[in-house]
Amino acid sequence: MGNILILGAGAMGSAFAFPCLDNGHTVFLVGTHLEDKFIDNIKKKNNLHPSLNCKLPSSTKILKFENFDQAMNNNISLIVLAVNSKGIEWAAENLGKSIKNEIPILLLTKGLSLVDNKYKTLADKLNYLLIKNGQKKTSITAVGGPCLAGGLANRIRSSIVLANSDLDAAKKISEIISTNYYSTEISDDLVGVEVCAAVKNLYSMIIGASEGLSSEKASEEIKNKNFLNTAASLMYQSISEMVFFTKSLGGKESTAYGLAGLGDLYVSSAGGRNSRMGKFLGYGMSYKEAKNAHMLNETIEGAELAFEIGPQILKDYNISQLPLMISIIDAICSNKKLKLNWTNKKLGD
Questions:
Q1: pTM above 0.90?
Q2: Residue 202, SS3?
Q3: Rounded-to-10 torsion of CA 140, 308, 208, 249
Q4: What is the pLDDT of residues 288-299, one digit of tens each?
Q5: Nearest Cα to 159, choosing from 183, 141, 137, 136?
Q6: What is the DSSP code string of 113-150?
Q7: Short-list 276, 4, 17, 274, CA closest to 155
Q8: How far apart are CA 12 and CA 66, in angstroms?
Q9: How many Å separate Cα 178 from the centre of its chain?
Q10: Res 349: pLDDT
Q11: How far apart are CA 234 and CA 207, in angstroms?
């Protein structure tokens, strides 16, 4: 059994401790520099995690970031990175200083970034930053697939995909974390898995908007009871665009139809922050209006992605190629009402 360090004590990072502990590993759950009060609160409430609404196992070693270096001295065999996309630079700086030997990294964070106006996966960005901060070699495996933190923490049967161009590295991590309720596939399509894992947040907002977009004349009550026709149509169109976009960045079409694409989109659009934001947008609210009124202190991953890569998307693609993606990016970045071109049938050409 090994020692696993999870950096980031949010919902998914904390939930990830469950399969690791169930496999007999020692888990150091280390909060970021912004989570000191959060860690104190968990400990005061006997390991009750407020986001998961359940107690973390008593064997979990829950630490503030001030104890990070101390935790790293425990012969760590796997680092799990569970910060949000904005925290990648901070994490890379601190990991770069603390990793003495090559330790495999499992990246739970999902997103895309731009480097010199070119799209980069977070694994690529993390690799670049770690080398910049002193590492000579890295092994980064990314996670994709339909797994909500609350389900994982309650040991609900879930399936994910581990992506690394080095399949042996992904297989070793699979052996470390797989349980009878947490099954893993492996893939060498790191680009495809990360692209799908990121952009599904945009499409989750689109599908979340389906109730409000289902009719211009029907009452909210009628829409609420009958919007699934619209949701299904938007699901189909979303997958079509995900296939096109994934292939355009060098990923595999099959990945978009797998756990990291269709699977993750299904679970994300059925609930969660992105889908909830989409509902407000579908009923005519602007992004800022919805954020300030209903989700002020919540991170909306799809919106963060829109702000990060949206302007470049609008330059590189046209409305006939990515009608849904461009519509949601335009609405968020311009802070205006979401509108879809329902007559545009030329998807992914």
A1: yes
A2: helix
A3: -60
A4: 999 999 999 898
A5: 183
A6: EEETTEEEEHHHHHHHHHHHTT-S---EEEEESS--HH
A7: 17
A8: 21
A9: 19
A10: 46
A11: 6
- Write down the H helix ranges in the chain: 11-15, 17-22, 36-44, 68-72, 88-98, 122-132, 149-153, 167-177, 190-208, 210-213, 220-226, 228-248, 253-256, 264-269, 273-282, 287-294, 301-316, 323-333
Exposure class string for 321-344: b at 16+ Cβ within 10 A, else e = bbbbbbbbbbbbbeeeebebeeee
Write out pLDDT tens, residues 24-34.
Answer: 999 999 999 99
List the single range of 74-83, 90-99, 168-177, 250-259 with lowest mean pLDDT.
Answer: 90-99
For residue 344, pLDDT beyond 70: no
The continuous run of DSSP H or E covering 183 comes out as strand 182-187
Amino acid identity of residue 72, one-letter, is M
What are the tokens at 264?
């993750």
The Cα 160–Cα 67 span in angstroms is: 30
Assess contact for 163 and 187: CB atoms under 8 A: yes
